[in-house]
Amino acid sequence: MGSNGYVSSWYCLGNNVETMVGGLAREIPERLYEAGGVEPGRSPEEWLVTKRGFGFDPETLKVLLDRMCAESGVTVFFASRVVDTVGGTVPGSLDGLVLSGPEGLRVVKGTTIIDATGDGTISRMAGFPVRRAGRDTERIMAPTLCARMVGIDYKRFDRKRDQQALVDQAVKDGFFSQPDRHVPGLFRTGEQNAIMNAGHLFDTDALETSSLSNAYAWGRRLAHEYTRFFRERAPGCEEIELAATANLMGVRESIRILGEYDLTWDDFRIRRTFHDQIGIYCKQVDIHVYDTSPEEYARFQAEFESEGDAKPADGEYYGIPYGVLVPKGSINTWAAGRCVSTDPMVNGSLRDQPGCMLLGEAAGTAAAQHVRTGQPAHALDTTELVRTLRGAGSKLPQREIQREMTRG
Fold first, then answer.
1. pLDDT per position as a tens digit, 85-107
2. Domain end call among 33, 49, 72
3. Does residue 3 lie within any of the structural domains?
4. Is 310 among the domain residues?
5. Is 82 found in the same domain as 54?
6. How many domains does the chain have?
7. At a CB cut-off of 8 Å and minimum separation 6, what does 182 contact?
8. Domain closes at, from 50, 72, 94
9. Are residues 280 and 388 in the same domain?
10. Is residue 1 part of a domain?
11. Do both 241 and 322 map to the same domain?
12. Alpha-carbon distance 199 to 178, whole Å?
């Protein structure tokens, strides 16, 4: 999402008291900074501790991730999609995946599988239990097609100072094709550059081809509409230009697995921690508006901006237990990213990219432990897992660790 999706801004690496991240979730932003890919005026000393986010250049991120994969000996198959799974001889196990690529169909065998598809594609195909937004929930959080913008005068444009008042006035004036007051807007990525996160594509189902296709076309139209809005109404944006719309839709919600542990709003609300937590996080609940009504915008503002149950205070965080990564009964398959096992409220926090990076490193570490020990995913020794993650730099402050995972 930070590269092809142009969601090139990361948030909540710290809770205003201490950092929440370590391991790859810290290494990647620091190497991005060293490569000159972080927005001007921002440094790790600030964003590792504060709740302020930072923007970055998606092209620099692409090259960095290519380099890190090469350094680690990863074989990459670009232009390939999972079209089926290869079931194992033991229930709950997979022997590989069927990919569709330039050569046609191919089977890639694997002793471990990690579903980082976002949409839970592998888990669904393998028959693991999942929950689908719009079927198992009342509504689907709308996606957004982000865009790259150039030509912004940051000596005059201030997103936090100006943007919301300008959006409110434009809605009042009937400027937009849909009266959406919830506009995350322009996030700086360079000297005169930004990514634009604007335009909710309401009632889109990312698991239906026709719905997603219509949303891409709709999102491109909205990108031009919001470009005109900023050019005509925002000081410092008189010369703004739309450089490109994203190749990858910014889907916020589609599928979540049912895992060995399901992280819930009650856990989030009391800031629960776990002996087998594989990460800690502090992003507030960020469930975007479901429609353009004033009531929906008021609901979003109360959750996102007001201190309370949905927004951890300075110094607070919640734990992420290992079991959210493990589809029920899985032997050698894990999930990572926004498709892990949570309820919709927790998903509204954990779906952000720093949280997903924590989940991804933990899933990879668990998979490596399975290869070394033969321990099944659903019965992994979580004492060993936590110690390995700590050795790699992960921020895991729990004092007590136990072999058996937390289940629920």
1. 999 999 999 999 999 999 999 99
2. 72
3. no
4. yes
5. no
6. 3
7. 200, 288, 289, 297, 300
8. 72
9. yes
10. no
11. no
12. 9
Q: 261: which 2 tokens?
A: 């542990």
Q: Same structural domain for residues 275 and 371?
A: yes
Which residues contact residue 252 at a Cβ distance below 8 angstroms, ignoring those fewer than 6 apart?
141, 142, 143, 144, 288, 338, 351
N-terminal to C-terminal alpha carbon distance within the chain: 30
203, 278: one domain = no
SS (H, E, C) the chain: CCCCCCCCEECCCECCCCECCCCHHHHHHHHHHHCCCECCCCCHHHHCCCCCCEEECHHHHHHHHHHHHHHHCCCCCCCCEEEEEEECCCCCCEEEEEEEECCEEEEEECCCEEECCCCCHHHHHHCCCEEECCCCCCCCCCCECCEEEECCCCCCCCHHHHHHHHHHHHHHHCCCCCCCCCCCEEEECCCCCEEEECCECCCCCCCCHHHHHHHHHHHHHHHHHHHHHHHHHCCCCCCCEEEEECCCCECCCCEEECECCCECHHHHHCCCCCCCEEEEECCCCCCCCCCCCHHHHHHHHHHHHCCECCECCCCCCEEEEHHHHCECCCCCEEECCCCCCECHHHHHHHCCHHHHHHHHHHHHHHHHHHHHHCCCHHHCCHHHHHHHHHHCCCCCCCCCCCCCCCCC
Q: Which amino acid is at 172?
A: K
263 burial level (CB within 10 Å; 0-12, 13-18, 19+): buried
Number of residues written out for the chain: 408
Q: Which range of residues forms the domain containing residue 127?
A: 77-138+252-408
- Residue found by looking up tokens 């900023």 in the block: 230
Query: 258 and 375, same structural domain?
Result: yes
Residue 4 included in any domain: no
277-300: pLDDT as tens digits: 999 999 999 999 999 999 999 999
Matching residue, tokens 């634009």:
196
Indicate if 328 and 264 belong to the same structural domain: yes
pLDDT band at 408 (very low <50, low <70, confident <90, very high): confident
Q: Work out the pLDDT band at 247, boundaries 50, 70, 90.
A: very high
Q: Residue 17 burial by CB count (10 A; 0-12/13-18/19+): exposed, middle or buried?
A: middle
Q: Are 212 and 205 in contact (CB under 8 A)?
A: yes
Please give the single-letter amino acid code of residue 204.
T
Residues 55 and 83 in one domain: no
In which residue are the tokens 């960020």 written? 286
